[in-house]
Amino acid sequence: MTMTSWLPLIVLCSSLFTGLIIFLLPEERSGWRTALNMTGATVKVVGVFVMAWGVLVQGAVYEARFTMGLGFDFVLHVDLLSLAFVSLSSNLWFLTTLYAVGYLEGSRNRSRFFGFFSLCVTASTGVALAGNLITFFIFYEFLTLVTYPLVIHQGTPQALAAGRTYLWYAMSAGALLFLGVVGLQTLAGPFDFVSGGVLGGMDDVGQWEARVIFALLICGLAVKTAFVPLHGWLPAAMVAPAPVSALLHAVAVVKAGAFGVLRVVQDVFGKDFAAQIGVLEPLAAVVAATILFGSLRALMQNELKRRLAYSTVSQVSYIALGAVVLGPLATVGGLAHLVHQGIMKVTLFFCAGIFAQSRNIHRIDQMDGLGRTMPVTMALFTIAALGMIGVPPVAGFVSKWYLAQGGIQAGQDWVVAVLVLSSLLNAAYFLPILHRAWFRPCSGNLGGPGPETASGSCGIWEAPWMLLLPTLATAFFSLAAGVFAGWEWSPLGVAELISAGRGAFP
Amino acid sequence: MTTFLVYSLTAALLAGLGVHGLITRRHLLRQIMALNVIAGGVFLLLISTAYRNQGDFADPVPQAMVLTGIVVAISSTAFALALLRRIYVAQGQAQDEAQDEAQGQAQMDAQANDVSTPRDESTP
Amino acid sequence: MIWLFVIGFPLLTCCLLGHARTRDLAAGPGLWLASFPALGLALVGGGAPGVFPALFLETTLHFGLYGRFFLLLTSMLWTAAGLFAWSAAQSGSGGRDQFRFAFFFLVTLSGNLGVCVAQDLASFYVFFAMMSFAAYGLIIHDQTPKALHAGKIYLIMTVIGEVLLGAAFFYVGVMADSLLFADAAQTLASAEAGWNRNALVFSLALVGFGIKAGVLGLHLWLPLAHPAAPTAASAVLSGVMIKIGLLGWLQLFPLFAGQESWGMVMAWLGLAGAVYAAAAGFARHDPKTILAYSSVSQMGLMIMAVGFALAVGGPWAWDGLALGADPLLSGLLVFVLVHGLAKASLFLGVGLAKAARWSRSQARLILVGLAAAGLVLAGAPFTGGALVKQALKSGAGQLSPIWSDFFIAVLPLTAVGTTLLMAMFLWRVWWSMSVNVDLPETHPETAQDFESAKTGLGMVVAWGGLLILVLGVVPLAFLALPGSWLGMGLAAEGWKGLWDGLWPIALGLAATGLFLRFNQGGPEANGLDDLVLAAVERNAARLHAWWWSSPYCEPACGTINLVAWSDRILQSSWMQTVPDRIERRLLYWHTVGVLFVGFVLVFLAVTWWSGR
Amino acid sequence: MTLAAWMILVPFMGGVACLLLRGRAVAWVGLAASAATAWTCLPLLRHVWHSGPVRIDLGGWAAPLGIGLYLDGLGAMFLLLTAIVGLLVGVYALAFFGRGREYARMEPYFWPVWLVLWGGLNGVYLSVDVFNVYVLLEMVGLGAVGLTVLSGTNDSLVAGLRYLLATMFGSLIYLLGVALLYAQTGHLDIFLLADAVDGSLPVLVAFGLMTGGLLIKAALLPFHFWLPPAHAGAPAPVSAILSGMVTKASFFLLLRIWFVVFPDVTAPVAGQLLGVLGAAAVLWGSLQAVRQTRLKLLVAYSTVGQLGYLFFLFALLTPAGGEAWSEGWASMAWTGTVFHVFSHGLAKAALFMAAGCLVLAMGTDELAAMRDIAGRLPVVTFTLGVAGVSLMGLPPSVGFVAKWMLLKASLASGQWWWAVVIAMGGLLTAAYVFKILSFTFVPVGGHDANARPKAGPKAGRNVDQGANEHQGPKNSGVPELRPVPALMTLAALTLAALCVLFGFRAEEVIALLLRDMGLEPPFDAVLIGNIGGDRP
Predict the structure, then answer these.
(1) Residues C512, C592: one domain?
(2) Full DSSP string of D423-468
(3) Chain centroid to CA C280: how far?
(4) Which residue of A29, A295, C241, D406 has the fewest C-beta atoms within 10 A of its own C-beta?
(5) Is residue C561 part of a domain?
(6) Which residues of D are less than 8 Å from A172 in CB distance?
(7) Mean pLDDT, chain D, integer
């Protein structure tokens, strides 16, 4: 094994071993735990950076392949798509860990929390690096397992109910996905992901079989992607601590689903073949419905995190939209949104966590005048929220721009209509929050006394730097990703590279 | 009608009787006895095969098998009886499924089926 | 880099707000210093176009055809507004929260400057959005209920406009396969008739920019927002920002390519807006509202001019178009300039008038200044306004005969409306100054501020400067460039021109007199705008209420609730009893025995049967 | 290779030695015997790996008269599983019975009985003589019952006697079949029988009786009546033994009977019949497990469900008689099933051992009492979780491999309905595994006991009960957990970890398993080792 095959493993294991060791650490060794976490995260970020440099600049191929003896190989492969996802997850892991250390200061069961947290990142790294559908599935299911303890971390009845909901959805979907994966392998034999699809080139795959398998796979992925009739778990899972929500929404679970949809449509079926067997239209209908319905539901929420959750439901489907719309520009938009949505949504959840943690603010009607008391946090929230709406120059507008253009390019004008409506709805549920926070007078009517602040105080009280710094970084990224979208290595630039087929599997 | 057939039919009858006893009797002692009846049937069949090929000598293998089988059956029965005794000492009766009744789980079912096992039947 | 510096300078100034020590600098002189680099750039000229591949989606910044002109106007007006705001703040009449005001002021400024020089769709969109959204902060700055309401309407319409504009840009970008305005316009020039993507782009852009520019029907936010905003903000809102919509059309639409149908649509819309706004606005009581309607009316005329330019098939290829080559286009630009300066000076004048108690002579002086600016707008002879009228007329003359006669006939009538509005405006200002009533809708604290306010010198300077520019710029240009069409336009028609300029004004004044004679002191009636708006809001509220009470709003709506299903199954009375009963049965020897015997028999039977 | 004989003799001798000793020495000697047995297994395994199946005739007497032993890949896998689980159960038991008086009392009985049982199990896997197998099965059965009643409580006595009657009944029915078979063919050796059987009625009846008898002992669905009370009532190490290993012996024998002795007379419909019973077991057992409120009963019913998966093999392999074997999916079905045996053996033993830790700590196995176990006994909870993952068939675990193979086999063979059942069974398994886990996360503090759960779902209801209970008198003091020996936790954790690790090394197992059966390798993958050792 050379460096090129070790590196993906190192990146994968940097969080795996961290997680396992953290489990064994006693509760009170928080210094050790933090050090370990940060070391793991740093190793991962550096590893990803080296891989990115290798792939993008040197054209190296990083691949670790193990024969399982089961008719498939366990493959970790770094292509541009996985690179985009893995750099997102590694960087956000770093920041979220920092945030979580601050957020959970002094709470119980932190070893367990951080252990599963690391495992969760391992799983999403695995999902990103998986070189074939089965490896993908393995990590995808692993993800379900390790997220569950995080969702029910607080152990409240609500948390348990949420965990139960999550499991019901995820497990049922996992069963379907399993059937789909096995069926596909039975039909087509083992294969790796290939940019442009594999099935199109196979003669012995019948149309109907392909359709059934497509349906199974997409239904299996739909739960994590939170496609509309199956999105029920996502808002329920909001009871988890804020870093978990951030991770769920921005990096791990939802993203894994969307990433899976991208992989299945583009690298397994291939857009052309999928269009040929006519499965893209139904999927597109679901995606469009999800985008609109998620936004509509978000409009109805008064709880901040729930509103954000429904916003995720809507926004993640943009990624899937990129996969189902035929134009190459749409692909670029979807891929870019994978990253953009991640950094913006993580910012929003960080901020929501800060509000909850420091001011005990959970509902939107408690946010009056928050801009005066926590100006920095609120400013970051504003940046991300504007980005979600698609207000330039925050990153969101870039993805929408490309998605819409892709739709037009492919003659699917409804994409524009969907985006227009969705943007309006996004504005309708985010702008009132911003208005409240910035332009209403501070009511002093906070959700209750914050841990360290007198109730009703309208003085400036900012969050501790451990919470603020990661938020600042992600907000900065979301702004930068929009402002410097044209840069060659920006998320958009990388997405263009991926779409152009460079760095695809040889 | 060969001898073998007579033996085997008898064996089948015995085994059938045993099975019937096992599944209809609710008293544990009777069930143990029913199992022994089945065992008797099986051994009868086995011993009858010793002459099945009409040879000059009896096949020693079935005899060895029956001997072994009897040992096994005896030890099992002994074990079962020992258990039965412990149960009787512990709960004052020797019915497996009466246990359910006592716990009120299956009163309806039990009443319907309990005709054949009078309760006052005692054990060794 | 100079381009980025010019646009970014206000943002840099804005950054100073973040630090307590530099804060006062940024919120003070920073307001008017921020646009100086832009002013310099517009005067000196920028050199090579700035291409920034990494910025947004390959940003190209340059003057283009109109950029320098708009940049000049923008920087002038913002300098004046900044000066006014600073001075107002200095003298204590700036209202509260000056740092927040400064923040939004500077961000809006930055966006506005960027829009002027953006040569590609993406960066234009970015700056446009920056300007539009930041302006919200300016509009609701006073936080009166009225301002909040205005802000809400503004925000909603802005968002809609942004989104539609975005859609238009998406289409153009794909159709032209380029994000440059130049390519986009070229693509649109080859439009065919009928409903196709070109038509879609036209209509999307019409609405998208129209909301900003106050096209009839989309102008609803204007009369609300302008009076509600602080004076300096109203000045730039009305002076520059609504013109950006116009700039968008000019850049995007293929002018002089003979798109007659679209041209006529715009011309008619513009004309209708001009007439309607005059009719709707003159009876208003708040002078700033009248000014807002006047803006709508004047924008209507400009839109009409754009319509003319669209409809006319020029003899020259559009890319050879140069400023000054065509009286219509140049006249339009002069119109923009004149209206921008005049309207800004009018707004600042109102602010000045309200800022303190003036002695009668001072009040007269202010009134004269306002009247002069009003006259320019109304197109009095030898002002820029007359020139504009001339240009419009020549533009109308190039249309096909039916339209041309009609528009030429109608044009002077719009001047009557403008005069009416201006005269009513002056009357209201005079009235408010003499009666000295506090404006009812001001925030009490703001009103208190006003009470104790002194007038700053800067406010006067800003106003006076603009006034001088308004009055002086065109004659100066005439003197400087006697040979251009400017000179010809002013000089050629002689006494007839003078008469043409004067009779509408006289008519307007007469109408004003009549109205005041019969309706002086009458209550302010709700206009059509208010009725429409009220109806829309009522229905929106009803829709909202219906939606909230509808089953679609229940938390479980739209989800496949697997948990509920599983619960329904697992908790059902059947499930609670039957499996237990079966399982209990299965624990009985006789059940198992019967099943066992049955199994063996079935097994034997099937084995036997399949062996046969 | 007399090692094969030692596999049986070593535990027997260990058992006898244990009988003669007193005090803690029993445990140490027993553990030493366990280690020796497990150790003996290794060279045997290596031998089979290198040179194919082993056949030895004890004392030099050939087939009809002497006692023959035979070990092929399949048997080796079962031996290996027994050795692993047996050794770890031994380690676990060493600590378990060292706790307190009530357990220490059982220790002198546990070790001899268990070692004899182990010897019997090894014998079943090694024997080629259908009658010897009967004797060994009886030995296993008696041992199992002996272990079941170890605690001497009333419930366990009743359960034990019922178990005894059932297993005796099954054995006798089996013996009846053997007698018929012998009467018809005059052979007892499975390979000789394989050549001698024909489609005559007595042979068929013998086949049916043997199958039926073994099914009772294997606790397939309608015949599982003895299993839950016996498994739930026994002490933890015993439950692990019973569930992880003893049920597998009868299944192993069924495999031998069906695919070695009677491959020519099996009917496709009969195979489907077993498959249907298996499917019913999967669904029914899992459903019952979901509905239990006591941990050990839940795990016991889970055994009923998990055993059902094994019987798909009969449905998958019988359709085309001998021809099916040449298909790729035949080998998938085989490996899937064997992996499932592994998965279930390891995972269920780990589950029972973890449950034993919990019972030891809490004094009860009520699920509702397991509050905040995740916080207080994290390693045990982790073990529960990992073992559960393997049961669910989720990656990365040996259970996943098993399910993968079974699914593939059922899809490839066109019998897709098993795939549906497997998927649904996985869901139900997830339901009960996570039911356990969710209870472990309920905090002790009950900081919002007043908050009602939103919906009225089952977990919610249970939580609610917990909360209400919590508001009661117990509120003042959370019941203290008794300490759990690290060795017990470690043993359980090791088993759980093995569940995961075996998932990564499937290739060797497949190679070992398949080449002795003359099966096509299922994939293009190059199998390790020399394929095609000599078959007898």
Answers:
(1) no
(2) HHHHHHHHHHHHHHHHHHTS-SS-TTTTSPPSS--HHHHHHHHHHH
(3) 19
(4) A29
(5) no
(6) 427
(7) 82
Q: Do A71 and D375 touch (CB under 8 A)?
A: no
Close Cβ partners of A18 (under 8 Å, ≥ 6 residues apart): A36, A37, A39, A40, A41, A118
> Nearest Cα to A286, choosing from A220, A212, A230, A217?
A230
Residues D332, A242: Cα–Cα separation, whole Å: 45
The CA distance from C438 to C440, in Å, is: 6
Q: What is the bridge-based pairing of β-strands A73-78 and D68-71? A: unpaired
CB B48 within 8 A of CB D129: no
CA D69 to the chain's CA centroid:
23
CA angle (D129, D130, D135) in 5-degree steps: 95
Going by C-alpha positions, the residue among D209, D215, D39, D189 that lies closest to residue D127 is D189
Q: Which amino acid makes up residue D246?
A: V
Terminal-to-terminal C-alpha distance of chain C: 94
Taking alpha carbons only, the member of C201, C90, C119 closest to residue C456 is: C90
By residue range, what is the domain housing residue A445? 289-506
Contacts of D222 in chain C (CB under 8 A): 586, 591-592, 595-596, 599
CA proximity to D234, closest of D121, D305, D114, D152: D152
Total residues found in chain D within this entry: 536
Q: Helices then strands (H, E): number in chain A?
A: 20, 2
When pLDDT is cut at 50, 70 and 90, the band that residue C587 belongs to is confident
Q: What is the pTM of this model?
A: 0.87
Amino acid at C395: G
CA-angle at C88, arms to C84 and C92, nearest 5°: 175
Asked if pLDDT for residue C409 goes beyond 60, the answer is yes
CATH 1.10.287.1080 matches B3-108: no
Cα separation values, C416 from C282, C360, C507, D253, Å: 12, 29, 6, 108
- With b for 16 or more beta-carbon neighbours within 10 A and e for fewer, the A380-389 pattern comes to bbbbbbbbbb
CA D111, CA D117: separation in Å to the nearest integer?
10
Enclosing domain of residue C221: 2-525
Is A423 in contact with A318 (CB distance < 8 Å)? no
* A186 close to D (CB below 8 A): yes
Closest by alpha carbon to D4, among D144, D87, D125? D125
Query: Which chains border A (3 or more CB–CB pairs < 8 Å)?
Result: C, D
Q: Do chains A and B touch (3 or more CB pairs under 8 A)?
A: no
Of the candidates D344, D311, D365, the residue with the CA atom closest to the CA atom of residue D429: D344
Looking at the complex, report in whole angstroms how far the Cα of residue B60 sits from the nearest Cα belonging to chain D.
10
Each domain of chain B, given as residue ranges in start order, spans 3-108
If you search the block for the tokens 């800004």, which residue do you land on? Answer: C344
Per CB-CB distance under 8 Å, the chain C contacts of D211 are 603
What confidence tens digit (pLDDT) does each residue in A72-130 have? 788 888 888 888 888 888 888 888 888 888 888 877 778 888 888 899 989 999 999 99
Cβ-contact C348, C80 below 8 angstroms: yes
Q: Is residue C104 part of a domain?
A: yes
Cβ pair C54:A420 closer than 8 A: no
Nearest residue to C8 (alpha-carbon basis) of C126, C98, C159? C126
Q: What is the reported pLDDT for A448? A: 47
C338 residue type, one letter: V
In angstroms, the CA A106 to CA A241 distance is: 14
Write out the H or E segment, with its range, that includes residue A76: strand A73-78
How many domains does the structure of chain A reveal?
A: 1
Looking at the structure of chain C, the number of domains it has is 2
| Side-chain half-sphere CA neighbours of D476 within 13 A | 1
Q: Are strands A62-67 and A73-78 parallel, antiparallel or unpaired?
A: antiparallel
